[in-house]
């Protein structure tokens, strides 16, 4: 909405602008844009000190330059309108319509926008709400419907910095949890999305909610853990790290036939000190009870293979699809553009030196690694 | 030579490259990949061991063979297409050069040298920066860069950045560059129009002062004209095409560096006429300063 100034408005030049004056004319860099002001606009802008009303300023200029007061007031009002529209002045109670939080961002931080493994797939689902979450030094937006957003906000607590209703931007992550319905023609699975990509589809809503928490937490993996874009497959206290399969459902069933379970989501962390693999919220103790409560109100479509439990497991090996050396580890599991903070290459090479790397990531081959084959 | 990171197994690495302040070597297991990169980035070769690594190679993903590109272990793309991986590599190299040179004032501009002074040509994508630079180099000027004119505020000189020039589909007025990559190299370059700068003409390898600024604006079929730009408008226009202007002091440093440097706005749709206009106006101006 166009802001409205009056003669009584008391403008102030925007704080934090970078300005250079060339021959009495200003070049201003503010709010990500460059503005060239002519001499008149420069004089008016520099006079906006938060103390003088526009009409008073116009009267002073009229006297100084010997021009008619009405002309000066009209000119000053026009320039001030333009300066306000450009965000170069602020006036108490008047907005230019582009406040820092208008787009749902956290001031000073870019909210992570995921790239997609599926070019042309669009932005993914439209969510009722976005939670803006601080995960370590990263800012994420997590999309959900209102009730689920409430539950996620309760679990994430102070890590949630803001909430945007009817968001316009693409979510970093999002969950679609179908509501109970008498219609049984189509089974709608609960889904975890990163942009348009589906990271997990499950019959169990709680599993998806736990997975989104895990996914968010992996953005804040602390040292000395090294994060990989991969899954963990294991049994008991032992696990192998492998590339996330293209068809997780089929792969999980095949793994279950060998008595193996998979981690959910698309990331895991390796602790090189203890030689363990971890997934889930490794950065803080979160009370997940609200997730179970929220999931109980949604459709649970039946059983499916269990996910790997959230605990540290002994790392037995890494399974790659290419040759069994460090380059395959980097190429197949190096954190992708979807991650903001990434392990330095040296850390990945540490992993390659510390953990046996084997070729082949089919469940039977993983089982052979786990059982010492 | 074999890659320091991945040793045997077909992995090799380029010479150490100085892409502005980005100190890097590129590792690859793609046939002909390192040879191609060494040729494309030849003007920026150094001796010694690089601090950073770019990687392009084969990778499997969910069982499917493909290619990946990584910066210091951060994978920026996995793709079944070698040309896509290579395009990301070239983009990442340039982006890292920009981001890792914070002590330089970096204009989104092409640059050529006329005599011992640089003509910077800032503009948005599609303005005609690279094509105009290529035309001027073919006409006898020396190539500085087609993407980032980086000025050292301390020495007030432009740092050479002789990256490969990206011409897309070159205009008919520009003769085809005399460069024929190997079949392996062609598999990676694809139809990007990327050529080594040396294929067009001489390449600057030493710092030079800034002599003039031309703001190109390609408009199909437009009559070519070149006009001087007032200092405040020039600064505003150049600032608009400056990377990381949000870094404190950048605007003031830029103002100091371009103060007194003549600036022109060039509009046109003919490369031949644009080259002539720059030679007539800017060449004369630079020579007289």
Strand content of chain A: 15-25%
- State the order of secondary-structure elements of chain B, H for helix, E for strand: EEEEHEEEEHEEHEEEEHEEEHHEH
The computed structural class of chain B is: alpha+beta
Radius of gyration of chain B: 19 Å
Overall mean confidence score, pLDDT of chain B = 91
Helix tally of chain A equals 10
- Number of helical regions of chain B: 7
Overall, the morphology of chain A is elongated
Low-confidence stretches of chain A: 97-109, 115-121, 337-342
Tally of extended strands of chain B?
18
Largest interface: A-B, 43 and 42 residues
Distance between the termini of chain A: 69 Å
- What would the principal axes of the Cα set say about the shape of chain B? globular
Keywords:
heterodimer, A: 373 residues, alpha+beta, 8-stranded mixed beta sheet, 6-stranded mixed beta sheet, 10 helices, 19 strands, B: 289 residues, 5-stranded mixed β-barrel, 18 strands, 28% helix, globular
Q: Can you describe what's shown?
A:
The complex is a heterodimer of chains A (373) and B (289). Chain A is 28% helix and 24% strand. Chain A is built from 10 helices and 19 strands. Chain A has helices at 39-47, 54-65, 69-85, 146-156, 205-217, 248-257, 289-296, 326-333, 345-354, 363-370, and strands spanning 11-13, 18-22, 25-30, 33-37, 89-91, 129-135, 138-144, 160-165, 173-176, 190-194, 197-202, 225-228, 231-235, 238-242, 261-262, 268-271, 276-278, 313-320, 357-359. Chain B is α+β, with helices and mostly antiparallel strands and 289 residues long. In chain B, 28% of the residues lie in helices and 34% in strands. Chain B is globular. The termini of chain B are far apart. The A-B interface holds A 18-20, 22-23, 25-27, 29, 32, 34-36, 229, 243-246, 320-323, 325-328, 330-332, 334-337, 339, 342-349, 361 and B 5-7, 9, 11, 29, 53, 55, 57-65, 68, 70, 72-78, 231-233, 235-236, 239-240, 245-246, 248, 250-252, 254-255, 259.
């Amino acid at each position: 909405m166009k802001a409205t100034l009056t003669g009584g408005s008391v403008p102030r030049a925007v704080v934090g602008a970078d300005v250079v004056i060339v021959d009495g004319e200003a070049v201003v860099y503010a709010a990500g844009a460059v503005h060239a002001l002519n001499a008149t606009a420069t004089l008016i802008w520099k006079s906006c000190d938060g103390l003088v009303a526009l009409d008073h300023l116009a009267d002073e200029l009229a006297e100084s330059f010997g021009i008619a007061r009405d002309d000066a007031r009209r000119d000053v009002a026009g320039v001030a309108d333009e300066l306000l529209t450009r965000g170069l002045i602020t006036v108490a109670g008047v907005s230019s319509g582009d406040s820092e939080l208008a787009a749902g961002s956290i001031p000073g931080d870019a909210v992570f926008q995921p790239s997609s493994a599926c070019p042309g797939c669009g932005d993914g689902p439209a969510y009722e709400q976005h939670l803006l979450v601080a995960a370590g030094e990263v800012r994420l937006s997590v999309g959900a419907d209102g009730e689920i957003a409430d539950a996620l906000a309760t679990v994430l607590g102070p890590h949630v910095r803001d909430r945007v209703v009817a968001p316009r931007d693409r979510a970093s992550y999002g969950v679609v949890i179908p509501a109970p319905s008498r219609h049984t023609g189509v089974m709608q699975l609960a889904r975890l999305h990163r942009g348009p990509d589906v990271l997990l589809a499950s019959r169990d809503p709680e599993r998806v909610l736990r997975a989104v928490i895990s996914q968010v937490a992996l953005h804040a993996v602390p040292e000395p853990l090294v994060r990989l874009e991969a899954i963990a497959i294991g049994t008991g206290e032992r696990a192998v790290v492998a590339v996330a399969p293209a068809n997780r459902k089929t792969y999980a069933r095949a793994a279950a036939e060998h008595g193996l379970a998979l981690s959910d989501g698309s990331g895991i962390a390796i602790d090189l000190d203890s030689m363990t693999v971890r997934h889930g919220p490794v950065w803080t103790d979160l009370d997940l009870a609200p997730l179970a409560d929220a999931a109980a109100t949604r459709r649970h479509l039946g059983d499916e293979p269990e996910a790997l439990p959230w605990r540290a497991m002994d790392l037995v090996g890494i399974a790659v699809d290419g040759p069994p050396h460090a380059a395959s580890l980097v190429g197949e599991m190096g954190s992708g553009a979807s991650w903001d903070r990434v392990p330095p290459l040296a850390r990945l090479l540490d992993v390659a030196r510390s953990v046996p790397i084997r070729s082949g990531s089919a469940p039977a081959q993983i089982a052979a690694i786990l059982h010492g084959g | 030579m074999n890659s320091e990171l991945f040793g045997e197994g077909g992995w090799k690495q380029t010479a150490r490259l100085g892409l502005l302040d980005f100190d890097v070597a590129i590792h690859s297991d793609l046939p002909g990949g390192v040879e191609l990169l060494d040729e494309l980035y030849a003007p920026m070769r150094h001796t010694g061991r690089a601090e950073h690594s770019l990687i392009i190679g084969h990778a499997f993903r969910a069982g499917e063979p493909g290619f990946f590109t990584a910066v210091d272990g951060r994978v920026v793309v996995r793709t079944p297409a070698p040309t896509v991986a290579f395009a990301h590599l070239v983009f990442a190299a340039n982006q890292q050069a920009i981001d890792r040179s914070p002590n330089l004032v970096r204009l989104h501009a092409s640059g050529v040298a006329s005599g011992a002074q640089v003509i910077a040509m800032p503009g948005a994508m599609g303005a005609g920066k690279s094509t105009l630079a290529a035309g001027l180099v073919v006409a006898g000027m020396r190539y500085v860069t087609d993407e980032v004119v980086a000025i050292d505020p301390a020495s007030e000189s432009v740092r050479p950045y002789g990256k490969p020039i990206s011409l897309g589909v070159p205009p008919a007025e520009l003769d085809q560059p005399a460069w024929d990559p190997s079949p392996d190299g062609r598999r990676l370059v694809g139809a990007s129009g990327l050529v080594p700068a040396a294929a067009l003409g001489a390449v600057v390898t030493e710092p030079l002062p800034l002599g003039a600024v031309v703001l190109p604006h390609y408009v199909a079929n437009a009559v070519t004209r070149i006009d001087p730009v007032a200092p405040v408008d020039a600064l505003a226009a150049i600032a608009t095409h400056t990377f990381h202007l949000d870094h404190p002091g950048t605007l003031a440093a830029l103002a100091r560096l371009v103060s007194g440097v003549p600036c022109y706005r060039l509009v046109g749709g003919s490369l031949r006429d644009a080259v002539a206009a720059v030679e007539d106006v800017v060449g004369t101006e630079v020579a007289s300063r």
